[in-house]
Amino acid sequence: MKLRHKNKHQENFPVGMMLFDKEIRKIVSDYYRFARYADDIADNPHLKPQNKVEKLYELEEIFTGKRNYKGQKLKFVQSLKEEFSQKNLPLNLATDLLIAFRKDSLGFDYQTWGQLVDYCKYSAAPVGKFMLAVHNENPSTYLPATSLCVALQIVNHIQDIKYDMSLLKRLYIPSDIMQKYHLQPQDLTKEKSSISMQKAVKHIMEKVQGLIKEGNLLPELIKSLSLRIEVCIILSLTNIMIKKILKGDILAQEIKLSHLDWLRGTISGICKGITTKQKTLSYKE
Question: What number of CA atoms fall less than 13 Å from residue 153's CA on the CB side?
Answer without folding.
Answer: 24
